[in-house]
Amino acid sequence: MDSIEQTLCAFIQTAFIVERGGGDRTLSPDDPLVASGVVDSLGIFEVIAFVEEQFSVNVLPEDVVIDNFETVHAIGNLVHSRLVSRQRDAA
After folding, report:
1. Domain boundaries, the chain
2. Backbone angles phi, psi at 3, to 5 degrees
3. Per-residue exposure over 25-49, b if at least 16 CB sit within 10 Å of its own CB, e if not
4. Distance between CA 81 and CA 77 in Å, rounded?
5. What letter does residue 87 receive in the DSSP assignment?
6. Do 16 and 43 contact (CB within 8 A), yes or no?
7. Long-range contacts, 83-91 (Cβ 8 Å, 24+)
8. How much is the pTM?
């Protein structure tokens, strides 16, 4: 798990599991988020806001598909791709 995934896991663990009464359930990068009910459709927008602020990237409308938010690993891949795009645009 890289640092982006660690940051995402910590955020989702706190915002969606602990604060919503999920107890001490731990989250791994490949756990299903939407299918398991950890993150709902509105929660995806909370995750997007966090990602944009924390990693200084823009999540584009075409990025907002369930496949990009189904696991922490998938969200991490999205962040990595946005960071690469940002670096390419800056060059």
Report:
1. 3-18+28-90
2. -65, -30
3. eebebebebbeeebbeeebbeebbe
4. 6
5. H
6. yes
7. 83/55, 83/57, 86/56, 86/57, 86/58
8. 0.91
| pLDDT at residue 65 tops 90 | yes
Neighbours of 17 (CB within 10 A): 17
String of DSSP letters for 20-53:
TT-TT----TTS-STTTTSS-HHHHHHHHHHHHH
Which class would CATH give 3-18+28-90? mainly alpha
First to last CA, the chain: 28
pLDDT at 21 over 90: no
Do residues 16 and 3 make contact, with C-beta atoms less than 8 angstroms apart? no
Average pLDDT value over all residues in the chain:
92
